[in-house]
Design goal:
Length: about 250
């Protein structure tokens, strides 16, 4: 016979190292006090990743989908920060363990632990979004999402017209064809300087595409990211997104 009982999260190892206790998570979200949260958990009213959790001490991990009364719960208000990353800094969440991380540039306790959206590595410069909005993280990481990124790329050698055409027509990486929206010489620059407009292509993949043309990148700067620009944002500085900018990001499909 089938059962209508809700599935329960595996409770043999409720702590799931390195997370936040579920009762604290609910309390931080303003749902209730920790004591009241314990009661809600014991009653089976809280789900994590679609499964009911009743174990006291269960720890929520980053990226978990926590729901109370079938409504999503976020432990803290969403924060959206835009950084103009300088060269030599790496985008990582383990800022305290890595020399010259982007966290050193965001010198406030409130924002310092915000995870970056995507990895830029040390050599790539330009726009980097940092947010605790898990839904937006997943959306921007989805290869099917449609948003533009514009890069200014400096090469060690000249790129010819065939190279630009090849990037637009598509370059095969590990059996998959990747195309940029457009590639052109930067006005007033040399044939070593090109502007590349892409749809949801990160700097790592773009470098691989360029290497397929036997070209080496000496500098790469992301100057536009999903409608966000570097206007009034000097290198190494950051600012909060406006409500209108956040609304635009949430409209990305």
């Amino acid at each position: 016979m089938g059962s209508n009982m809700p599935a329960k999260e595996n409770q043999n190892n409720p702590k799931r190292e390195g997370g936040t206790r579920l009762n604290k998570f609910l309390s931080n979200a303003g749902i209730c006090s920790r004591r009241e949260a314990d009661q809600l958990i014991a009653m089976g009213l809280v789900r994590v990743n679609g499964k009911v959790v009743t174990a006291m001490g269960f720890q929520v991990q980053r990226g978990d989908d926590v729901r109370y009364d079938n409504q999503p719960v976020q432990s803290s208000p969403p924060i959206y920060l835009l950084l103009n990353k300088p060269k030599g800094f790496v985008a990582t969440q383990q800022g305290g363990n890595i020399k010259k991380s982007i966290q050193e540039l965001v010198r406030t306790d409130k924002y310092q632990k915000l995870p970056p959206v995507g990895d830029m590595g040390r050599t790539v410069t330009g726009l980097l979004l940092m947010t605790n909005d898990e839904k937006l993280h997943r959306k921007l990481a989805n290869p099917k999402s449609r948003y533009n990124t514009l890069y200014q790329v400096t090469l060690e050698d000249n790129a010819d017209a065939a190279d630009l055409e090849a990037l637009t027509n598509g370059v095969r990486i590990e059996g998959q064809l990747h195309k940029v929206k457009s590639a052109a010489y930067i006005l007033g620059g040399t044939k070593k300087e090109i502007g590349i407009d892409t749809v949801n292509i990160g700097p790592g993949l773009l470098k691989k595409m360029i290497r397929k043309r036997d070209l080496k990148v000496s500098a790469m700067d992301r100057v536009l990211l999903a409608g966000l620009t570097k206007k009034d944002l000097p290198r190494g500085r950051w600012r909060m997104l406006t409500p209108k900018e956040v609304q635009f990001l949430n409209m990305i499909s």
